[in-house]
């Protein structure tokens, strides 16, 4: 089993046969459509968003075929797949020998991580050449925006260049040496370029660690996302923090029409009033509100479902399997279908569900063992 | 016509400074263009721009607005067609017009680029500036094509011999695929590096690079157009800084790579033409030191090369389909998706759609034209087969292909004339490199640890 196979099994497990294979491909390759993004949130799979941005459909399909051939996936309906008992066992066995990517935050960090990493690579290369008194080198990043940012920073630092280079070195060392640092620093450091010392490619690292490229990539990404979380503490990591502080990222993405509805809601318009103003059906506005409740964690549904009714619906939902709306409605006749849906999406968001089965390995020292195993350099 | 690495770019960079002239350079390959721009930038010249499809909309707009401020403007031939570009160019005063890899102009050349054919007209639109056509490989016929297409009346021609005396030539005939791989491995382990092994298959380059990197003491990586740009840059830089011994590449690697000390070029497959072969082996020994070319040949290898050519050819059905939808399709991409044409095939058909009009049976006519080109290409492959199977001097055969008549007698010539392979054996041991720990690497990057020794190991 490759690391990609394991990640796919985690995704299939989350979607539990409710969505097609393509939905998983779009999720991990990071297709920015409202369908993909809503699915990601509804099933608590948003941490996997765009974790394999360069994945080809062909490699994805090959990976799926492998899982099907090994009977790790079973087709319980046409084109609907669930993880089998064998699959569950294989997955458990796999993560006993491979570090589990606890720190992945695909949706939160996908843009930020890419830009931060490219800037860090080019900035390190520039500083390295600078302190080695070399002012000519081929940049490892050709993206003009990245080059522009590094040039600007480099010029800005003027007399502080030496001091800041040292600081950057110390901050990196500090973070790598942390007890909680999730994996071997090689996945970051061996990819970095300095004066006459060119970084290794992920494929070369895979060769070196005798593993597959998909594992190198996720172990790298997991540590990168960990670093991004840590450096939000700008007192401890002023330089690293400054590399990403200007990168703004939308916290949520709504469809254009839903965005409009949200603006009316923020001005306390009722559903009926919004429908009238926008010349839309009330059911459409209700769909918008469902989307908002799903995507915006801070959005309160109380104006639409009073608290006691929320509890009643949630209690009913948990008393029956499959959370079928009709059955909930039978138990709570005074709730509308809209109110039931709303409670289900806002309370049913299952963030972090994907890592709960593995939490016991986080501090048990197992991850430490896995780290050591693969770090023989 | 100058061999690769002999300073063709100096021919337009120096005059540009002396004459304070703005230069327009047409360059066919995006990766090559990027490399050329980087090389000019690295010597401190910032007034250089590459106009190609890598530019974002914003960057392109910005570049076009300021076009007259650039000293060196690199452009891909397909970009020259765009109205906004020719408008921006007309605001410039281009005094030197350079066509790089000019052999792409010729229909008879292996790298024919239909867009190159309009360069003559574009040159006139620019007010017929002084024109420089550069190529490393061109037969008399192709040179005539270049002059005609670029409307150069009586140009000064500077033709250098294709012969590179410091590169010894060898063909190794093998009897099975297994033996071929085994022989390659032996060469990799013993012959002088840095070196390049050329493959016609990305997959094989990847697989063998991985396998031999694990099982030999040499550092080997593959390089082809299928890699992401970030990885391509790293591998190229590793090779330039001697952190890699061998690159297993497709023909995508090499142009624009200025490395002086490449010692050995091995061809695992038969190149598609003598032009391509000479270009590829010409990357060895730019420092003038003794270097080696080895071509591994398994009987019927030419079939692989021919098959690849056949794959390149659009079928009559595809040509007809193209004719049907070309006016209604929204763009190149849609045509490619609907007809299954490759980007290059699509470009060729667009070219024919432009120049071959008034045919009642257009598709059939174009199919005939393409078949005729195929015949010519197969003739090129036959030329390579002759190179492999000849009983005479291989060097002599190469220069004859380029219509040179001088006879060459030299030591370390070719395996037909005889030379000792032992003198191309590389040193062992010094090639061994350890991967340093992350602590050392980080310290080395930021010059934090002055601990002697380990920085030199790498």
Automatic annotation (TrEMBL), chain A:
InterPro entries according to UniProt: Helicase_HTH, YpbB-like
Domain Helicase Helix-turn-helix: 257-344
Top-level division of the source organism's lineage: Bacteria
Protein name: Helicase Helix-turn-helix domain-containing protein
Automatic annotation (TrEMBL), chain B:
Superkingdom of this protein's organism: Bacteria
Transmembrane segments: none
Domain Helicase ATP-binding: 1-156
InterPro entries: DEAD/DEAH_box_helicase_dom, DNA_helicase_ATP-dep_RecQ, Helicase_ATP-bd, Helicase_C-like, P-loop_NTPase, RecQ_Zn-bd
CDD domains in the cross-refs: DEXHc_RecQ
GO molecular function: 3'-5' DNA helicase activity; ATP binding; four-way junction helicase activity; hydrolase activity; nucleic acid binding
Residues of the Helicase C-terminal domain: 183-336
SMART domains per record: DEXDc, HELICc
GO cellular-component term (any): cytoplasm
UniProtKB keywords: ATP-binding, Helicase, Hydrolase, Nucleotide-binding
UniProt cross-references to Gene3D superfamilies, sorted A to Z: P-loop containing nucleotide triphosphate hydrolases
One BP annotation, GO: DNA recombination
Protein name: ATP-dependent DNA helicase RecQ
Species, as recorded: Jeotgalibacillus campisalis
């Amino acid at each position: 089993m490759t690391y990609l196979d394991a990640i796919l099994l985690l995704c299939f497990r989350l979607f539990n046969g409710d969505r097609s294979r393509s939905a998983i491909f779009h999720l991990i390759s990071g297709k920015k459509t409202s369908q993909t993004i809503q699915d990601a949130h509804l099933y608590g799979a948003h941490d996997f968003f765009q974790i394999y941005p360069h994945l080809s459909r062909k490699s994805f399909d090959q990976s799926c075929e492998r899982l099907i051939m090994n009977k790790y996936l079973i087709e319980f309906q046409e084109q609907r797949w669930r993880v089998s008992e064998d699959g569950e066992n294989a997955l458990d066995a796999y993560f006993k020998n491979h570090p589990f990517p606890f720190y992945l935050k695909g949706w939160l960090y996908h843009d930020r991580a890419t830009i931060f990493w490219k800037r860090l690579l080019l900035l390190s290369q520039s500083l390295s050449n600078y302190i080695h008194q070399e002012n000519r080198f081929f940049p490892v990043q050709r993206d003009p925006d990245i080059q522009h940012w590094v040039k600007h920073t480099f010029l800005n630092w003027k007399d502080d260049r030496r001091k800041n280079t040292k600081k950057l070195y110390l901050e990196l060392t500090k973070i790598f040496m942390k007890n909680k640092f999730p994996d071997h620093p090689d996945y970051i450091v061996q990819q970095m370029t300095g004066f006459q010392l060119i970084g290794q490619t992920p494929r070369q690292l895979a060769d070196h660690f005798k593993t597959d490229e998909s594992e190198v990539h996720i172990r790298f990404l997991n540590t990168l996302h960990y670093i991004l979380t840590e450096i939000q503490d700008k007192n401890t990591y002023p330089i690293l923090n400054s590399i990403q502080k200007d990168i703004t990222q939308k916290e949520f993405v709504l469809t254009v029409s839903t965005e409009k509805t949200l603006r009316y809601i923020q001005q306390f318009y009722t559903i009926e009033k919004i429908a009238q103003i926008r010349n839309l059906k009330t059911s459409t506005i209700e769909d918008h509100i469902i989307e908002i409740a799903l995507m915006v964690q801070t959005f309160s549904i109380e104006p639409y479902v009073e608290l006691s009714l929320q509890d009643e619906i949630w209690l009913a939902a948990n008393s029956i399997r499959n959370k079928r709306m009709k059955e909930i409605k039978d138990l709570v006749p005074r709730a509308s279908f809209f109110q039931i849906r709303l409670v289900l999406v806002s309370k049913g968001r299952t963030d972090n569900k994907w890592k709960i089965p593995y939490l016991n390995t986080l501090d048990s020292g197992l991850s430490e063992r896995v780290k050591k195993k693969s770090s023989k350099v | 016509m100058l061999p690769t690495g002999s300073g063709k770019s100096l021919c337009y960079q120096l005059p540009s400074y002396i004459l304070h002239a703005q230069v327009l350079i047409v360059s066919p390959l995006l990766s090559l263009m990027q490399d050329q721009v980087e090389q000019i930038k690295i010597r401190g010249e910032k007034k250089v721009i590459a106009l190609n499809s890598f530019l974002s909309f914003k960057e392109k707009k910005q570049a076009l607005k300021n076009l007259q401020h650039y000293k060196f403007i690199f452009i891909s031939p397909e970009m020259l067609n765009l109205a906004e570009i020719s408008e921006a160019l007309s605001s410039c005063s281009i005094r030197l017009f350079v066509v790089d890899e000019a052999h792409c102009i010729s229909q008879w050349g292996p790298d024919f680029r239909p867009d190159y054919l309009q360069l003559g007209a574009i040159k006139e639109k620019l007010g017929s500036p002084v024109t420089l056509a550069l190529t490393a490989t061109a037969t008399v016929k192709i040179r005539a094509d270049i002059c005609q297409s670029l409307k150069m009346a009586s140009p000064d021609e500077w033709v250098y011999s294709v012969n590179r005396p410091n590169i010894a030539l060898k063909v190794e005939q093998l009897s099975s695929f297994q033996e071929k791989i085994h022989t390659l491995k032996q060469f990799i382990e013993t012959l002088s590096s840095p070196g390049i092994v050329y493959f016609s298959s990305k997959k094989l380059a990847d697989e063998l690079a991985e396998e031999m990197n694990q099982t030999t003491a040499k550092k080997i990586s593959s390089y082809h157009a299928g890699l992401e740009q970030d990885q391509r840059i790293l591998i190229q830089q590793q090779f330039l800084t001697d952190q890699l011994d061998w690159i297993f590449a497709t023909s995508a690697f090499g142009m624009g790579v200025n490395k002086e000390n490449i010692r050995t070029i091995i061809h695992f497959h038969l190149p598609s033409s003598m032009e391509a072969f000479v270009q590829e082996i010409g990357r060895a020994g730019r420092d003038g030191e003794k270097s080696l070319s080895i071509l591994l040949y398994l009987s019927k290898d030419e079939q692989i090369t021919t098959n690849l050519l056949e794959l390149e050819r659009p079928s009559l059905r595809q040509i007809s389909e193209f004719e049907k939808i070309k006016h209604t399709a929204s763009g190149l991409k849609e045509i490619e998706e609907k007809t299954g044409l490759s980007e290059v095939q699509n470009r060729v058909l667009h070219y024919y759609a432009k120049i071959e009009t008034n045919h009642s049976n257009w598709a059939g006519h174009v199919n005939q034209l393409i078949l005729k080109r195929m015949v010519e290409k197969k003739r090129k492959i036959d030329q390579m087969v002759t190179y492999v199977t000849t009983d005479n001097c291989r060097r002599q055969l190469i220069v004859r292909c380029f219509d040179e008549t001088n006879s060459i007698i030299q030591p370390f010539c070719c395996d037909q004339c005889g030379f000792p392979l032992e003198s191309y054996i590389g040193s062992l041991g010094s090639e061994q490199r350890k991967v340093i720990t992350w602590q050392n690497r980080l310290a080395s990057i930021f010059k934090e640890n002055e601990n002697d020794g380990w920085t030199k190991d790498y």
